[in-house]
Amino acid sequence: MLKTRTLAIALLGAGLAFAIMPAIGTADVNSLAEKCGECHGKDGNSSDPKVPNIAGYSAKYIEDALEDYRDGERPGLKFKKEDGTETDMVEIAKKLSEDNIKAIAEYYSGQTFKSHAGEQETDPRLVARGEKIFKRKCKKCHTDFGTDPEDDAGILGGQWMEYLRHQFEMFASGEREMPKKMKKKFRKLKKEDYEAIIHALGSK
User: Fold this and answer.
1) If we measure between CA atoms, which residue out of 144, 164, 157 comes closest to residue 52?
2) From CA 162, how far away is CA 143, in angstroms rounded?
């Protein structure tokens, strides 16, 4: 009898703990979007230059990215929450179920990407140089200057330049893994090439 009662209390406690957890543990799209929107914007368009827009990305890309974060295959940028504690996308993704991931991917793939081209300063000379490099090295996988979600490679054109710069740094240091076909071309780029490409993408 005591064991049964103890088990009942334990189950009740677990139920209460689940009930007070953020909606991140359910497939409620609105609740999930609200949590993601704290950083990425409710419609997936971020107001923080360190945080990327995710609106309009293909559902496949979003699913793959979240699974990579969850499985520790992609590093996440540390950031402070409203309560002052630090977290990152790896910790967030670990709390997501497969249903959560699919719901988030479907929701944000249905939103409209809004370019930040008019909100950030670009150097025309770097833009022109970056466009030439991009056409030679990147356009095969990132069509229309990285604005086509059908590439399943995220949206690069019109993205925040500060975010892009950080991703380039992680690729260069090896902190973030890249596809083999990208690795060969990326290794031939110089640091000044990175910046030129970033300016070109930021202008779209």
Assistant:
1) 164
2) 21
Per-residue pLDDT tens digits for 55-111: 999 999 999 999 999 999 999 888 776 677 888 999 999 999 999 999 999 999 999
Residue 86's DSSP bridge partners are 80
Taking the C-alpha atoms of residue 33 and residue 11, their distance in angstroms, rounded to an integer, is 29
Read off the pLDDT of residues 169-204 as tens digits, 9 standing for 90 and up.
999 999 999 999 999 999 999 999 999 999 999 999
Q: 124-203 has which fold?
A: Cytochrome Bc1 Complex; Chain D, domain 2 (1.10.760)
For domain 29-35+47-110, the CATH class is mainly alpha
Write the DSSP assignment of 176-200 as a string of letters: S---HHHHHHHTT--HHHHHHHHHH
Interatomic CA distance for residues 75 and 170, integer angstroms:
9
Token pair belonging to 164: 């892009």
pTM for the model: 0.83
| Residue 166 near residue 50 (C-beta atoms within 8 A) | yes
